[in-house]
Design a protein that fits this description.
Number of helices: 9
Structural class: alpha/beta
Shape: globular
Order of helices and strands: EHEHHHHEHEHEEHH
Strand content: 5-15%
Strand order of the largest sheet: 2-1-3-4-5-6
Largest sheet: 6 strands, parallel
Helix content: 25-40%
Length: about 290
């Protein structure tokens, strides 16, 4: 059996050191849960890579203990529209989140999806932190502030090149902002290599303001560099992806739906947690298949 390769791209907010983040994610993926025995990558000959970019925004990483103790891991992502100044962008986002001009942006309510999902109240401090990450990290990436987009793109490309040179299946996996970073590389970097599979979870790729900053069309938005399946995993109560959780209608292949949208129900009040998603039975089943380990 040839070696397969999974490349993970994390989402918004501060993180522990890359070696700690890797351990936490891989332990969550390997932990038996909900009738699934776990997906232990090392035990089945799957090599992992972590594209780490939190260091570009934060001087000091979180401790592993702080990260693991956060039941409400705050990783939000939304972005801005093409050819807008920052003031215009802020006004557009105020409209998107129904916030009055004189009201602090951190008081923005969670927007109801077009689906009849129950509104999820967030405590004020949590909402404030989400908006802080929203305003800084997603915006700075999509507008390439201080070359941020170029730097992160190169980190993804380095991992892809290493994996491709090793041979075997290559699968790109993104969470939260990591999903549109991964998509951006697949569609916007001319030298990006072909990969075998793509997985997104907790993704804001369905949001118009994100799509408008990417190389994308609704009728042909499926990345041509993905030769296999794109599986999009969402929890309907994830406050990030719930704005538009299903991607099949927005990222078609030659006018036909091609993305596999998978509903995965997490638990607790914060459904956006990467480690919760990684314990999902459906996510693991598809990830095994994409990595040729089913």
């Amino acid at each position: 059996m040839s070696e397969s390769h999974l490349i993970f791209v994390h989402g918004l907010a501060n993180k522990p050191r890359v070696e700690d983040l890797r351990r936490i994610w891989l332990e969550a993926l390997a932990e038996p849960h909900d009738g699934d025995e776990g997906f232990d990558l090392g035990a089945v000959g799957v090599r992992d890579y972590f594209v780490y970019w939190a260091d570009l925004f934060y001087k000091e990483p979180l401790t592993a203990a702080d990260y693991e103790s956060r039941s409400n891991e705050l990783e939000d992502s939304v972005a801005s529209e093409l050819d807008l100044t920052e003031d215009e962008w802020m006004n557009r986002m105020r409209e998107k989140f129904d916030v009055d001009e004189d009201e602090p942006f951190e008081n923005a309510p969670v927007v109801d999806s077009v689906q009849p999902y129950e509104r999820i109240p967030l405590p004020g401090p949590a909402k404030k932190k989400i908006m802080q990450h929203f305003l800084q990290e997603a915006h700075d990436y999509l507008y390439n502030k201080d070359g941020m987009r170029d730097t992160i793109r190169q980190r993804v490309m380095d991992a892809l090149t290493t994996a491709k040179n090793a041979g075997g299946a290559v699968v790109l996996v993104g969470h939260s902002q990591g999903t549109f970073i991964a998509y951006d590389v697949l569609t916007g970097v001319p030298d990006c290599p072909q990969i075998d599979g793509f997985m997104t979870f907790g993704s804001p790729l369905g949001i118009d303001e994100v799509q408008d900053r990417l190389v994308w069309t609704r009728e042909d938005g499926f990345p041509g560099r993905v030769s296999g399946d794109w599986v999009n995993v969402y929890d309907p109560f994830d406050v990030v992806s719930r704005l538009d959780p299903k991607l099949a209608n927005d990222f078609k292949k030659h006018g036909e739906a091609a993305v596999i949208d998978l509903k995965e129900e997490n638990w607790g009040t914060w459904r956006h947690s990467a480690t919760k998603y990684l314990k999902g039975r459906g996510l693991r089943q598809h990830l095994r298949r994409l990595a040729d380990r089913d």
